[in-house]
Design goal:
Distance between the termini: 49 Å
Largest sheet: 5 strands, mixed
Shape: globular
Strand content: 15-25%
Mean pLDDT: 92
Helix content: 25-40%
Strand order of the largest sheet: 5-4-1-6-12
Length: 294
């Protein structure tokens, strides 16, 4: 049986790269997306964040879905969240920042959520600009982790990894693991020379309840350090892997919506899959209708 958990979708970023890309795009085809926060971008006709939220609110073990926003985009997320009234609660908290320069960073957002809502369950943290490939199933992945690792050790946390290449090893957080898929090291953009591992770690973590107090501990330890040392969630993951057991569940790949081209590629992939499904269903319906008349 899967333990109860809460989920947190990180949505307090400013998408500065995407905005630059839209402004520079001479076709003007995407200018209607200027000012839309990345998690609210339509992906195959559905806001990216809804693809996570719809799945999470349908899971009986997911008790609350939290979203950390910023002051600039908070109202847009309030409007978005209205559709979930009466289901698993979707609760928003604003980090108070209003521009990229005064952002507090992803780890601060996690800390804000834990302290504001007194989170005591296991906490699933998902990047609001991240999607996985079609074959990924949230429920199956979490269940497998619980059965394989967390039932034996309730303090264990779950990370994911997909195979990347030499280029990816310079762009992503890379995990080294032992033969039991336990993380032995988290390397931030190490490059291909520094490690033989090509296991890239996306922003999707199931932190055990035991791991949650370490978030504020990490923030205290880093209080005097530059923002870049506590901004990306990988900074905390590295800290966590040194203190409590973390295990890796394999996935096939991810979409990371960063700049405009990555948005176009991701949207295209989900649009194609969606329209193909629609065509097949329409064909079956037409055939059924034809049979019933024949």
């Amino acid at each position: 049986t899967m333990a109860n958990f809460d989920a947190l979708i990180l949505a307090a970023g400013y998408g500065t790269r995407l905005a630059k890309g839209i402004k520079a795009d001479i076709s003007g085809e995407y200018k209607h997306l200027l000012g839309v926060p990345k998690p609210l971008l339509p992906i195959g006709g559905t806001p990216l964040i809804s693809r996570w939220a719809n799945e999470l609110v349908a899971m009986p073990n997911c008790k609350t879905v939290y979203v950390v926003t910023n002051a600039y985009n908070h109202k847009m997320f309030e409007d978005w969240a209205k559709q979930y009234q009466g289901k698993t609660p979707v609760k928003l908290v604003c980090d108070g920042s209003s521009c990229n320069e005064d952002r507090s960073g992803a780890v601060a957002a996690i800390e804000l959520c834990i302290s504001t809502f007194k989170v005591a369950n296991n906490l699933l943290v998902v990047g609001g600009d991240t999607l996985f490939l079609k074959d990924f199933d949230t429920s199956t992945t979490i269940n497998s982790f619980v059965v394989q690792y967390q039932q034996q050790d309730p303090t264990a946390s779950m990370l994911l990894a997909y195979q990347t290449d030499d280029v990816g090893a310079s762009k992503c957080g890379i995990l080294e693991t032992d033969s039991n898929s336990k993380v032995t090291a988290f390397l931030e953009k190490p490059g291909p020379e520094a490690t033989t591992s090509r296991q890239a770690c996306p922003c999707f973590y199931m932190f055990s309840a035991a791991a949650l107090p370490l978030v504020s501990q990490f923030m205290k330890d880093k209080a005097d350090r530059p923002l870049k040392e506590r901004d990306a969630p990988g900074n905390f993951v590295r800290y966590l892997t040194a203190k409590l057991p973390c295990y890796v569940m394999p996935i096939t790949g991810r979409w990371d919506v960063g700049g405009l081209q990555s948005y176009i590629d991701c949207n295209t992939a989900f649009t194609e899959a969606c329209s193909l499904g629609t065509v097949i269903i329409a064909a079956i319906m037409a055939w059924v209708l034809y049979q019933s008349k024949a």
